Amino acid sequence: MASTATIHLVRHGEVYNPDKVLYGRLDGFGLSELGRQMAEGIAEHFAQRADNGHPLHLLASSPLQRAQETIAPLAAALQLPVIEEERVLEAENAFEGLSNVKHRLRRPRYWPLLLNPFRPTWGEPYKQQVERMLAAVKDLADRAIAEHGDGAEAVVVSHQLPIWVTRLWAEQQPLWHDPRQRECSLTSVTSLHIGPTGVESLSYTEPNRHLSDQALALPGA
């Protein structure tokens, strides 16, 4: 019988960003105090799952500071190393480093970046994001199964847009979307259930809903 695995894609916690910069892949954007509470909440969530018969076997994270800080309490609680996974990095964005992006979009100099929202022309193509995310998920699932057997589970801390477009792909939905409609709150868990044919189903949970409701709507998350 073919083996299975579950890869939990966790979005990082709230970032300290008082100037509301679209930070994208920039260095130096760590978690806020609320974000650190979210990271502790995620650690507790997976510790409870382990107590209920669903232990984690591998941990991986985007190299960005906010992702590394989100996974740190979980790694400490489980005493597991964290694999740094470049392929689950935040999407590239031409507006990275800017604040008040909506206002800036009124300027003609930025209009060429908005020509094709289906691709999108202002950043990394959605298809490319999905491809790199799926490659990372497959490798982690294969490794988890090889090292820990059928039913192995792993957590990967990533970023909203790459997680969301991967979910759209898994649900056979168009990758183009309204960003306001993303169901991927801070420290939410999008679980990909991997079988012989690849991603066979997914589930979504918000362990920190009570905290994410308090979070600021920040760009570049």
From TrEMBL:
Top-level taxon in the UniProt lineage: Bacteria
UniProt GO cellular component terms: cytoplasm
Gene3D superfamilies xref list: Phosphoglycerate mutase-like (3.40.50.1240)
Gene Ontology MF, one: phosphatase activity
SUPFAM superfamilies named among the record's database cross-references: Phosphoglycerate mutase-like (SSF53254)
One Pfam family named in its UniProt record: His_Phos_1
Identification of the protein by name: Broad specificity phosphatase PhoE
Originating species: Garicola koreensis
